[in-house]
Amino acid sequence: MPAILLDGWLFIAPVIVASNLVKRFGNLVAVDNISFTVEEGEIFGFLGPNGAGKTTAMKMIQCVSPGSGGKLTVFGMDVNTEQRKIKRLIGVVPQENNFDPDFTVYENLLVYSRYFDIPRRDAEKTISELLDFVQLDEKKDTMIEHLSGGMKRRLILARALVNRSRLLILDEPTVGLDPQARHLIWDRIRKLQAQGSTIVLTTHYLEEAARLCDRLVIMDSGKILVEGKPDELVRDYIGTEIVEVQNGPEAVACLDRIAAKYETIGDMIQVYTDDPQKVANALLEECRPGHVVARKATLEDVFLKLTGRKLRE
Fold first, then answer.
1. Could you give the CA distance from residue 269 to residue 224 in angstroms, rounded to a whole number?
2. Per-residue pLDDT of the chain (313 residues; tens, 9 = 90+)
């Protein structure tokens, strides 16, 4: 495996290696014997319904939740014995904003820099650069309560970078944001990757995962169901296209005659295919259904197929 020199330390790539990782809370197995690697410089995603175990896995990477079994290393260091060294090298964007409301934008970042013993002059230079990076330089003297939701998410991203972190942990980085703010965050994440950062994220926005992630895993009930590149997962589990048709005995009989691969979902049938024109023509010519729509298959289709459509609370 290649070695990388980082902040004066020599680490062994991949950046994260998990082998047969387990996390139990009493009788509950939240993470059930999972293995994965995260390579230097990639964006790696954890997807799954509520309670799948993805956030627990990320907390283990952050060294805030010790494992119950297996092995996990970050930058070649064991999360159970070298937590302080690991934490100095990572930045975390939590799902909830957790700023000090009594401080301004600038003061929040300056106080945070003290946790890493960063000299004040160096911290001030870094903070100035980061505020410009997240387009908040004009808000540096603004109190937290006066920031919009999008501004707060950009600020929390800046805070995660105060220590010049090389591994970023992003938990729902764009939750609750409007499209403009979300796209701005995406742009900054891509720039960080281009600058060499390794990024691990979890999100419920499947389009976000498809756009950003080089590789990802889909988890459920503590286990990894699949791992791979987003486009390859779509192609392997769904196909390139989906034809949607109104459910009915004639449509089912027609699809059975042409040996189509389909799934019944309520009052609709979804047909998975690489030749949507052929399927649509067969449906229109033989059964004349009232509703036929062809569309591109997406990562969301894969997610729902693997984890089901039942609501998780």
1. 28
2. 455 555 555 555 799 999 999 999 999 999 999 999 999 999 999 999 988 999 999 999 999 999 999 999 999 999 999 999 999 999 999 988 889 999 999 999 999 999 999 999 999 999 999 999 999 999 999 999 999 999 999 999 999 999 999 899 999 999 888 899 899 999 999 999 999 899 999 999 999 999 999 999 999 999 999 999 999 999 999 888 999 888 888 888 888 888 788 888 888 888 888 888 888 888 887 777 667 888 899 999 999 999 987 755 5
CATH class of the 3-228 domain in this structure:
alpha beta
CATH 3.30.413.10 fits 239-296, yes or no: no
Domain extents in the chain: 3-228, 239-296
Choose among 101, 6, 51: nearest CA to 221.
Answer: 51
| 8 A C-beta contact, residue 93 and residue 173 | yes
The rounded distance, in Å, linking the Cα atoms of 304 and 308 is 5
Global confidence as pTM? 0.89
**What are the structure tokens assigned to 293, written together?**
């729509």
